[in-house]
Structures are given as structure tokens and as C-alpha cells.
């Protein structure tokens, strides 16, 4: 059965072009010109993924993604024409699964859609498959998706959680940036090292007592990053 995609964009030509290309790629497509119309579609239609423009009239995409995640828990890819730094766009931390900057190549968008659908359709581990990772004063429960640092619960965004889990699983081992991209984001992101740089910075802000002088996530210049366990105080 074809995956169902909802396009939300106030540009009529963009909606028509995207709809055509997605249908040619085998997707079932609906579209809406506003966030309000999109929420109305979602109330009566089953959808697998939402392509959401940030700069919408009325309720903008930033408010809309909160509603979509809260009410429907659907994967969302932002479409943005805003020329911001990468960490500002990705750093919205509102639950969006990815973003594509306009103008974009349709093949790039299709690859991103496939990657997000693949990630979000992976089965959730059952309780007997829960993995408890402990390294120094950090404890990661992959089953309940929780992290504690020195006994204090830390809230991590999904990709931050995945990145920390990969690092903690191999303490003291240097992991190359492309290796981290492949494991956490997938092959579509190879060649975009800034994605890792930004997420490493966010992680340090949350788990390091002095993010500018990290003790847990160490940069190995020219090589990558390694996780160094710290004993609990």
C-alpha cells in the first residue's frame, strides 16, 4: 500500500509540483494551503508523513508541528525558504524529523522522505529487548528512552539521544563523523558534517558541567569524537 503524504504549503504552484512528483514516485498525496486546513485533513484522513512549510499564513509551521506531534504523533519534514544557520533550523527542537531548504532537488527530498519513513517505521523494542547502557555516571535506558547523568534525568531530543547512545556504546573509541552520520542519520546525510557538529554541541550543553571544556564527549582533531566515562561524584 502506498505511503500517504500530506503537503502543507501556501504556494499553489509548489503544492502542484510536489504533488505531481510524489505521485510519480508512488506516494498517495493530499495537500493543504494552511496549517488550519492541514489539521482538518488530519482529523479525517490517515497520513504517514507531513511535509510542512514553516512560513504559513495564520498558524505558522512552528505552531503546527507542535499540534501535529501532540495530536497525531506523525513524522514531519519542514520545508523552509528561510536562510538561517543550520543549527537554528534543526535546533527548533519542536519534534520535526528533518528539514529541506527551498529551492531543493526533488531527488534529495525523495531520499529524505524515504529515510524518515524508514526510521519512524522501525518496530519499538519490547520490554525484554530493553537495553540499559551504563558508562561512568551516565545511564541510558533505550527501552524507556531515558537518560540520567549523575542520577539526574536529562531531556534529549530523539537524534541527540541516538547520538549519545552510539557514543556511549563504545567508550574511549574514536568515532569518525561519517560513521556517526551513517549510524544516527543514515547514508543520505554523508557529506553533511555540520549536522554532527551541531548535535554534539547540544549534547555537551546538556550533559557537560562546562560545555566549553567537555570531559565526556571529546573532540579528537581530524579524527572525530569519543566518549570518556566520568565516575559519579
Please provide a written account of the structure.
This protein has 233 residues and is of the alpha/beta class. The chain folds into 2 domains: 4-120, Response regulator (Rossmann fold, 3-Layer(aba) Sandwich); 127-227, Orthogonal Bundle (Arc Repressor Mutant, subunit A), CATH 1.10.10. The chain is 39% helix and 20% strand. The chain has helices spanning 12-24, 35-44, 61-72, 86-90, 106-120, 158-169, 177-185, 193-207; strands at 4-8, 28-32, 49-53, 76-80, 98-101, 132-135, 138-141, 146-149, 152-154, 217-220, 224-227. Helix 3 links the parallel strand 3 (49-53) and strand 4 (76-80). Helix 2 (35-44) packs parallel to helix 3 and helix 6 packs across helix 8 (193-207).
Kindly list the characteristics that best describe this protein.
single chain, 233 residues, alpha/beta, Rossmann fold, Arc Repressor Mutant, subunit A, 2 domains, 5-stranded parallel sheet, 4-stranded antiparallel sheet, 8 helices, 11 strands, 39% helix, 20% strand
